[in-house]
Design brief:
single chain; alpha+beta; D-Maltodextrin-Binding Protein, domain 2; Dipeptide-binding Protein, domain 3; 11 helices; 24 strands; 23% strand; globular; transport; Peptide/Ni-bd; Peptide/nickel transport system substrate-binding protein; signal
Amino acid sequence: MVIGVAAEPNSLDPVDGYALFGAAKIFDGLVEHQPSGTLRPVLASALPEPSADGLSWTARLRDDVSFTNGGALDAAVVAAAYRRVLDPASALRDRFWMLDKVNAVDQRTVRFDLRQPYADFLDLLVLGIPAQASTPAKPIGTGPYQLVEWRPGQQMTLTANKAYFGGRPAITTVTVEFIQDDQDRAKRMRDGKLDGTELPPRLAREFSKADGLTVVEQRAADVHAVAFADQGVTADPAVRLALNLAVDRQEIVNDALAGQGVPLSLPVPPVLPEFVEPGAHIDHDVTRAKSVLDAAGWVPGPDGVRVKAGERAEFALAFPPTDVVDRDLATEFTKAAAAIGIKVTADSTAKSLPWLFSYGDPFTLDQALYPLLHPAGGETSSALDVARTTTDPAQRAVAFRALQRAYATTPSMAVLAVPTHSYVLRDNWTGYTPVVDATGTDHTWGPWWNLQAWTPN
């Protein structure tokens, strides 16, 4: 199987951020996410259990697992992997902010001690466990596949682990091609050089009637938004609110996303419905947007661009140059801004804020929203603190709903939409099972999260 993906990992070390949501192919975690959002044990013999006070979690390991170099899986290896996360220099230290200590209780038991109870801790235990002899260049795991070759900037080749405790995968060789440009991936698919890839909706549509190919759509927690700068024009709360009011999000979905997506004005993605506040929203209202700017002293200049104290209401909006979806979203945002007298220039060469970005975690809100919104302070920050410190599901839902109500009055960015992720797959295999996507796509998640279970037709 040959897969084309836009994103190439910087490293194959889980502690450097490889395969954040599990399904690492080369490595297994203590637990694994399922399509329903639940977890199942993988290297753990059962789901890890919390103490009564929530300040520790205990994981017991399987006794039938070995690494691809023949080494045995034991508690010392697991504890060593998580201790690396505790290093202040670790890329995942902020993700595991609540983790205090990790100890091997005995050969098959690991205990995690937390600084405070954290409701989503179990979701973090999908972290891949490498052997102690593993290196980023020569990764050694227990997973269904092994790395054969990695040519940075070009491709990666994986081969099936014959001794995998879950059974040798039927797809014995997987080549992952790194193709950043959307148009280039579409061409490779068109030319028969790929067996599967993710494409923007407009590009995926052309394959919907092609023989031997299937286009599948997956829901995602992939929120696309405009991040504002804390200086210049977009530092003004009135400008931020006015831009939010100016955006017609349904039109954005229809035009930029070819109808494949969900309009969204608040930061919580609809794939986590238990946390959505139905009574809060920012409606499209150009008249109100203009009134907000007028009241804040932004008056139309001779060319229609608003001015305040000699400063023009204009700025460049950065976006990724190879991403068709973000290019089209940037275009729609500039049109909305122009309608209220703000000149925005979409610029793929710009390197600073404001910029178009995406975020999202399909399993937990805290990991995505806390670093993004907490610096804003006020009621939004307070709500995030409550959500982070409680383990009661009802109280967490109340806190996240309060966050959305506060955000709706003083938005700190402009949330636009959540695209549906479109994939083109060759009909040579069975086993595809839809799962909720995160932001971005790679070979570890998306349709290929359970690749080891696929079989050839």
